[in-house]
Write a structure and sequence with these properties.
The protein has helices at 5-22, 24-32, 41-48, 61-76, 95-100, 159-178, 198-204, 242-252, 269-273, 302-321, 371-375, 394-403; strands at residues 80-81, 87-93, 108-118, 129-135, 184-190, 214-220, 230-234, 256-260, 279-283, 349-351, 361-366, 382-386, 389-390, 409-416, 419-426. By secondary structure, the chain is of the alpha+beta class. The strands form 2 sheets. Strands 1, 2, 3, 4, 5, 6, 7, 8 and 9 form a 9-stranded mixed β-sheet that branches. Strand 12 and strand 13 (389-390) form a beta hairpin. The termini are far apart.
């Protein structure tokens, strides 16, 4: 018979304590220069994406430092824990460790969500909730099967992915603590998003209240590359009024949203959409630094994050203070695969994972000197077929990638402007 849950939790707590004390020199230094509780967007990103946080992979020193950073922020700003403390333990089977060491196939990797709540001001509406979240994990040092796009080991700082989202979330928390909304707001730094939405699934499957009390979920993932005031807003059709609300407040802040109706996608909002909860997913998209060590704090558009924070503050405030609830509506399957995947064979593009294009997958970035680039594909091409198999979204694309073989030629059909073009891509 296995260990009891209480024994397991005790062992995990002991493990976290050991990790914590092993990192005290770094953490104490950051407390002394006040970066740990500094609410500025710039300092939050630069702290989480610093060398000492080592890429924030689950069950590492950097993971623990990040959890402490967020919980200290909550505590220092008067944001209460939702549960008995700020931490909710989550676990998963790590396919990387299991692949390397077959004897550890049943070994779990542990991390924790960090959760705070600002209680609503209305005596009735305070018993309803809006979730505001961003994943705090990244790829650590990269390496085999980590999701990294390079072969060598190096710190993957994850400034855009997703220190930027955490910084935006914390900035919103500080705004709302000064003037609480009528509904209660729950702020969550999710663990293990890169490992398959581990933290968000762990939360929605173990709610401390009825799921029907959640009015909406906001997810910020990779919001550090705002260009030309253009953003992608996912989940815009998951309630009957979401699209209208997004456009209303975007116009006020001079933002140009690309609306994606679907509620599913490769980020934490999918876990909530699967429970029939309206979702809002905001991202500024990927570039060629995605999942590489070049995703560092010096490349972030900090003013852009501030603009998005002001925009979403007004949007959330509108929903949180409205006497009427959002009315959920289905917008895309809630059962599509949402975990991250890595493939031995790729075309060499950065796909638009937000679903902003109907009936196809846009290549946000065609990476220089990779197969798609050599074949003639360009940034913005919309892939509609791979080897005569229809590609409607990121899930179809990933299924096609899984079937590709090295040293073969695959036919890729795209829409470019008003034309349909076909390319032979040598893999």
């Amino acid at each position: 018979m296995g260990k009891s849950n209480s024994t397991k939790r005790g062992l995990i707590s002991l493990f976290l304590v050991i990790i914590f004390f092993s990192s005290q020199n770094i953490f104490s230094q950051e407390q002394n220069d006040k970066r740990v509780v500094n609410s500025s967007i710039d300092n939050t990103v630069r702290t989480l994406a610093s060398e000492g946080f080592e890429g924030r992979a689950p069950q590492t020193k950097g993971d623990t430092l990040t959890a402490i950073f967020v919980s200290n922020f909550f505590q220092s700003n008067g944001i209460k824990p939702l549960l008995k403390d700020y931490f909710q333990e989550v676990s998963y089977k790590d396919r990387v460790k299991n692949a390397i060491n077959k004897d550890s196939a049943n070994t779990l990797t542990y991390s924790r969500n960090v959760i705070g709540i600002i209680e609503g001001s209305d005596k009735n509406l305070k018993n309803e909730y809006i979730i505001i979240g961003a994943h705090m994990d990244h790829l650590g040092m990269g390496g085999r099967m980590s999701g990294s796009r390079i072969d060598s080991l190096a710190v993957h700082y994850g400034a855009d992915d997703n220190a930027s989202g955490v910084a935006l979330m914390l900035d919103l928390a500080k705004k709302f603590i000064n003037k609480p909304s009528k509904r209660s707001l729950i702020f969550i730094a999710f663990a293990g998003e890169e490992k398959g939405l581990v933290g968000s699934k762990g939360f929605v499957n173990n709610l401390p209240f009825d799921k029907n009390l959640i009015n909406a979920m906001f997810n910020f993932d990779m919001v550090g590359n705002l260009k030309n005031n253009s953003i992608t807003a996912g989940g815009s059709k998951t309630s009957s009024t979401s699209e209208e609300l997004i456009m209303k407040h975007a116009q006020k802040h001079n933002l140009k949203p690309s609306l994606s109706p679907n509620g599913h996608g490769p980020s934490d909002h999918s876990s909530f959409y699967a429970k029939n909860i309206p979702v809002f997913y905001f991202t500024t998209g990927a570039d060629d630094t995605y999942h590489t060590p070049r995703d560092n704090a010096d490349r972030i558009n900090y003013k852009g994050i501030e603009l998005l924070s002001n925009f979403t503050y007004d949007l959330i405030k509108d929903i949180a203070n409205n006497k009427d609830r959002l009315v959920f509506q289905e917008a895309g399957s809630a059962t599509q695969e949402t975990g991250r995947a890595s493939f031995k064979i790729t075309l060499g593009i950065m796909p638009d994972v937000t679903g902003s294009t109907e009936n196809g997958l846009k290549a946000d970035v065609v990476i220089k000197d990779r197969p798609a680039y050599k074949a003639g594909l360009q940034n913005g091409d919309i892939i509609i077929e791979i080897d005569s198999v229809k590609v409607k979204d990121i899930n179809d694309y990933m299924k096609c990638l899984a079937s590709l073989k090295a040293d073969s030629i695959t036919k890729v059909k795209v829409i470019r402007g008003s034309e349909v073009k076909e390319f032979e891509v040598k893999l």
